[in-house]
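Lab notebook, bench 4. The sequencing result for the construct came back, and we need a structural model before the next group meeting so we can plan mutations. Quick request posted to the team channel:

Model the 3D structure of this chain.
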Amino acid sequence: MRQLTRVSIAGGLFRATTPALLAIGVAMATAGESDGSRDPLRSGAGTGCARGSVSAVIAGKHTCLRVGQKCKRSLDKQYHRYRFHCHTGRLARKAAPTRSPTPTPSPPPSPPLPGPGQQIDVGGYKLYIECTGSGSPTVVFEGGQGGAAASAPLAGATGIRQEIAADTRVCAYDRAGVGASEKRPAGVASTGAQYAQELHSLLAGAAVPGPYVLVGPSYGGLIIGAFAAKFPADVAGLVFVDADSCDQPCSFGAPESGTFDPTPSFGEKPIAVLVAEFGFEGDGRGLASRSSNRILATALGSGHAIIQDQPQVVAEATRVVVSAARTGSPLPRCEETKLPQVGGRCETTG
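Done. Here's the predicted structure in token form:
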């Protein structure tokens, strides 16, 4: 009696009646598996499944999977191999796993600003400026060499600014590389013209309107002189506070370096020149001679830091220049101002 053996080949049945035929059937079945018909993602022609469906083996049986057909929820994990899932009794596509993008590291937070001011870009680096009050002309305070006029003012400077701000707009700032301002990029020279350009860009970027009355103590006197030379139309007046000046090209080293052209003539612009009674031998008379509209006074009992030792003298000199700039009138004689009452001794200018 012949023994019939059934061999499954590509989803069909083959009846083998002899061992030889049985071997052929097994070989064909094996070839069917190796040619990809058992590929869990294989679909369409050659798999025994219609195009658009996926050949699969679920619960040991070959089947063709397609979206929407009935399925057994208990076999859900088996469907996962073919990127289907059976959560509702109907097959649905299981999304391919996606790799989470590598998060871009956040830049480190900027250090907090030291006061109510702002940092303004002046050409790839930022300077810090604080302003208060309203009115015109705007008064801009410089610092001494290496001094941060805005973020770390000398004792007395804040009080002066508050007094002046009761009548007009007042600003103070930190120069490049000082206080809360960023350093100047390598290769950018610290010339008087560069200092002037940085201040001009800072005021424009901060929307601080001109014209300006510039107050320059010590090294700051060189900066306001350079600004007046480069932007004369923006300058309404100047106050020099025991200030440096140059009769010829000059240079300064640490703590804040710079090279400067000779301090210019200021024509008829109103200027006040304050000199200390002790400690600094600047050329106050020579500086005052650079304008025909000037006041020269000595701050009695003061060392080089007049802003600290005699703040009322600085405040009064600034008010006098602001008033003249606002009205367009010549400066009064020193003796006609309040300077002698607050500690200033009026000097003749020749």
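Confidence is low (pLDDT under 50) at residues 1-41.
Will bring this to the meeting.
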